[in-house]
Amino acid sequence: MRNLQRGGLLIATALVAVLSAHASTVNCASATGVITYGVANTDSFFCGNVVFSNFILDAVSGGAGSVTIIGADYNTVTGQVVLNLDPDLVSDQDDLLTYQAAAFTGFKITGLDASIGGDDAAMDERACLLPVPTSGPSAYLCPKGTQLGSIAIASGDPDMPVFSNPFGYIGPVYVVKDIGTGPGGSESVVNQSFETANDTPPVPEPASLLLLGGGLFGLGLWKRRKA
Q1: Model confidence over 106-133: pLDDT tens digits?
Q2: pLDDT in tens, 192-203
Q3: Which residues of 97-134 are buried (b: 16+ CB within 10 A; e: fewer)?
């Protein structure tokens, strides 16, 4: 009987965990739009703890002419925000995309991962602390001394970290993506995962303070008795 009860409890616990994890992901309905080559995009939208803005697209080699923001999701438990983009590139096309991501007041961005889908596609990505120039000899490069990290990935690779910093950044992070396809290739999915965390120090709960006080009181009594 006890084994049956224990088994039922384990199943119920697992079910609650699955339902909680499922319910923790929130779809951000405002995270849609089209970024057009040669047109300054002044729109901004937020998802979870992150605000996205200042999207700029440059078609380097016969790109599709636009990139579609197809959605974003926010995990209320982990603080992760996933941005999904569709470059819609085909054989031998190349796009350069830059945008800004900033954490809400009281939060910070602690990491950035990326992955791409498609076939015979690749992406170089950089994350910077300052705005990225889009013209001149340093176009699409992080200003000197401001690069947080960079990666080079191909279609089929798992999520790869662009940068990770447990201390995080409160100010904006500027992202540069160079997305391209080989002969006969295609690219239709780019996923961007931002890790966020609370930037304010945790306030001790009353129960924790009571427990700490009781422990100190007990330690004092023990020392007195020992003396």
Answers
A1: 999 999 999 999 899 999 999 999 999 9
A2: 999 999 986 555
A3: bbbbbbbeeebbbbbbbbbbebebbbbebbbbeeebee
Residue 118 one-letter amino acid: G
**Buried-state track 11-29, b at ≥16 Cβ within 10 A, e below 16:** eeeeeeeeeeeeeeeeebe
Reported pTM: 0.76
Which residue is listed with tokens 């396809």? Answer: 181
Measured between alpha carbons, how far is 144 from 121 in angstroms, rounded to an integer?
28
DSSP string, 95-109: EEEEEEEEEPTTEEE
**Cα(145)–Cα(195) distance, rounded to whole angstroms?**
22
Residue 25 is encoded by which pair of tokens?
């992901």
Nearest to 84 by CA among 23, 127, 28: 28
Question: Can you give the residue ranges of every domain in the chain?
Answer: 2-220
- The three-class DSSP label of residue 83 is strand
